[in-house]
Amino acid sequence: MAIKLARKSFILPSKELTHWFPGHMSKGMKQMEAKMSKVDCVIEVHDSRIPLTGRNPLLRDVITKNKPHILVLNKMDLITAEDRRNAHQKLLNERVADEIIFTYCKNEQSPGIRKILPTLQKLLKRKLSISVETGRTSDINLMIVGIPNVGKSSLINMLRAKHLSKGNAAPVGAVAGITRSLQEKVKICENPKIYLLDTPGIMIPAIKDAETGMKLAACATLKDHLVGPELIADYILYWMNKEGIYSYVDAFQLPTPSDDITEVLTRIAISQSKFLSIRQGNGEKRSYPNFKHAAEQFIKAFRTGQFGKLMLDSDLM
Ligand SMILES: Nc1nc2c(ncn2[C@@H]2O[C@H](COP(=O)(O)OP(=O)(O)OP(=O)(O)O)[C@@H](O)[C@H]2O)c(=O)[nH]1
């Protein structure tokens, strides 16, 4: 059922997007650097669907100043076990962090969540040994960092639920940019006492090419309106066709695979009876398929795993 791809490249809708770094992010970055001296370990959270794309290359050596560093690849439910193994190996070879843990942040009993405390105990062995003077262990301060919408707040809430049986302390949302400033530290464990600082999502300072930008947009780390839902849907369609994955055909009951986003969105809008009524120059009203609605449905299907478990960086492994 393979189809010939007509398009090979994408252009981001605005030049500014390649350096999209709003004020609250540079403020957040400064706040993070100011607090770094009190931090024992940095937990960097990223999206499993793009383990190589969009991570901040300066994080390890410059921003976190070589603190013990755990890379948490969240949303592991959206990729396959094989992609997980390949990404793990590749990132280990590149020594991007001291430890790499895959998590699913909708269940506090999932294996990745259970692994975090023992990993901290291993990395911070010295700090966690019982002091001869006080007879107790030192408090541990963690900082959680990462680009927007990867699940930083969800991870904090899971750790609190697992180790303290407490409810949510950090707000969670499906759109990027929910946490906008450095938060007060949150206790996530009583014994040993572990505190976590939630930080606002900080985008990479420069998006190096359109493919990177489109992957970040597809995973909702950029707000949809910055790129536009039709363009994001077009990229997802392009990527799936390129990989020979045609699950969108069944998901939206299309007759065949297609490389034409207008055709795909038209069919989705018609099948869901979503039209826009637009008045013509002569005063008459005409109905047009609602492309925006169709594009949003297409993107949602990708993001919720309806098209299957898809890792956008699989071509980079
Ligand atoms: N499928 C899936 N979705 C997740 C997982 N963890 C979090 N999410 C969803 O991802 C979205 C973002 O989660 P948040 O915890 O708000 O992410 P954040 O990194 O704190 O976001 P900002 O505050 O915008 O930087 C929400 O819709 C969560 O429900 C996961 O393991 N799997």
From TrEMBL:
**Localization in the cell:** Mitochondrion inner membrane
Any one Gene Ontology BP term? mitochondrial translation
PROSITE patterns associated with the record = G_CP (PS51721)
Keywords assigned by UniProt?
GTP-binding, Membrane, Mitochondrion, Mitochondrion inner membrane, Nucleotide-binding, Transit peptide
Entry GO terms, CC: mitochondrial inner membrane
Q: Which residues form the CP-type G domain?
A: 29-205
What Pfam families does the record point to?
MMR_HSR1
- Topological category with respect to the lipid bilayer: Peripheral membrane protein
Q: Which domain of life is it from?
A: Eukaryota
- GO terms, molecular function: GTP binding; GTPase activity
Q: Which residues bind GTP?
A: N74, K75, M76, D77, N149, V150, G151, K152, S153, S154, G201
- Record's Gene3D superfamilies? 1.10.1580.10, P-loop containing nucleotide triphosphate hydrolases
PANTHER family (UniProt xref): MITOCHONDRIAL RIBOSOME-ASSOCIATED GTPASE 1
**Which family is this protein grouped under?**
Belongs to the TRAFAC class YlqF/YawG GTPase family. MTG1 subfamily.
Q: What does this protein do?
A: Plays a role in the regulation of the mitochondrial ribosome assembly and of translational activity. Displays mitochondrial GTPase activity.
- Name of the protein described by the UniProt record: Mitochondrial GTPase 1
